[in-house]
Amino acid sequence: MRAARYLTGGPDAGVLEIVDRDVPEPGPGEVRVRVSVSGVNPTDWKSRKGGGLTAAGLDEVIPNQDGAGVIEAVGAGVDERRVGERVWLWLAQWQRAHGTAAELVALPSEQAVALPDGSSLDLGAGLGIPAMTAHRCLFSGDGIGAGDAVLVHGGAGAVAHAAIELAVWRGARVASTVSSPEKAQLARAAGAELVVDYRNEDVVAAVREWAPDGVRRVVEVDLPANADVDAEVVGDHGVVSTYAVSPKPMQASRTMMIRNAAIEFVLVYTMPEAAKRQAVADVTEALRDGALTQLPVRRFALEEITAAHDAVEAGFVGKVLVDLPR
Ligand SMILES: NC(=O)c1ccc[n+]([C@@H]2O[C@H](COP(=O)([O-])OP(=O)(O)OC[C@H]3O[C@@H](n4cnc5c(N)ncnc54)[C@H](OP(=O)(O)O)[C@@H]3O)[C@@H](O)[C@H]2O)c1
């Protein structure tokens, strides 16, 4: 099979190239998927460049955690009727050497989830990391419910877009910050009721007018930059759920303390197993309900994998997808 790979050590570490590899055999409890589309996330280029969470002891990595395709073989203990199923893949390369930037990938059966009829492979290839992270940010602990107000920062981002759609699906009201009219349109299309340009408008005033008692949850992409805003808009006992870290300094907030509000950190890889299972179940239900949609897509061939990673690193607005040869 054809695959993209990089080495993890030496002078060529992180350089992507296309290679031929043996067809992976699914082990017990695994399935082999013929990948149609591989989805690229920031974590993929960060890990490749040494700033991520690649498992120790790997000489070579086939990158990319997300993807979609069709099951073509099953290992011992997996129902043979799964062969032929269209599936979306999550955390394919977590703690493993082989991700989705390959014609074929073998992975645990539960990490290949049936795609409902009507959900495209492209949509499926963009679900794993963004939708599962978004789900945890919204539903950890006592989570959000119908009628709750939620603020999602950076609403055109992959995680944020999924967060808006999942929150709306659950019956919540959503406000979102953005930095341009193009991004505002994407946030609105996802279902945000209130969209605020955080570079040119007063976010606190707008959100407080929209939700006078404050929001129950903030889904946060840049905590140090937004900490003061978050403290002013979060309601009593609310949660600021942050999924990205930055090296900027941040001061502990007295306002957060007065509100008995919490700051929670989310990492999709290490979230509790029960939370992963719940995220998969809810994302599947939301797909069936037609509640999850596709951001604008930029496509690359497998041979263009470096350009695909670069596009994500450069902040392409939408999803970057890599097509595998048929
Ligand atoms: N913890 C986890 O498990 C997890 C999971 C997925 C992703 N991540 C991390 O989360 C980050 C975003 O991932 P992604 O895939 O969603 O990326 P993305 O699609 O590039 O979206 C990031 C969005 O955040 C916006 N943004 C940046 N700074 C902002 C600020 N101060 N206020 C409001 N919006 C801001 C950006 O737009 P503007 O800059 O134009 O505002 C952009 O729309 C990456 O660092 C990624 O590595 C972590």
UniProtKB/TrEMBL annotation:
Gene3D superfamilies hit by this protein: Medium-chain alcohol dehydrogenases, catalytic domain, NAD(P)-binding Rossmann-like Domain
GO molecular function ontology, one term from the record: L-threonine 3-dehydrogenase activity
Top-level enzyme category: oxidoreductase
Domain Enoyl reductase (ER): 14-322
Amino-acid biosynthesis keyword on record: no
Record carries keyword Lipid biosynthesis: no
InterPro entries reported for this sequence: ADH-like_C, ADH-like_N, ER, GroES-like_sf, NAD(P)-bd_dom_sf, Zinc-ADH_QOR/CCCR
EC number(s) given by UniProt: 1.1.1.103
Source organism superkingdom: Bacteria
Keywords (A to Z) from UniProt: NADP, Oxidoreductase
Pfam families linked to this entry: ADH_N (PF08240), ADH_zinc_N (PF00107)
Membrane-spanning parts: none
PANTHER family from the UniProt entry: QUINONE OXIDOREDUCTASE
Protein's recorded name: L-threonine 3-dehydrogenase
Organism: Capillimicrobium parvum
Phylogenetic placement of the source organism: Bacteria, Bacillati, Actinomycetota, Thermoleophilia, Solirubrobacterales
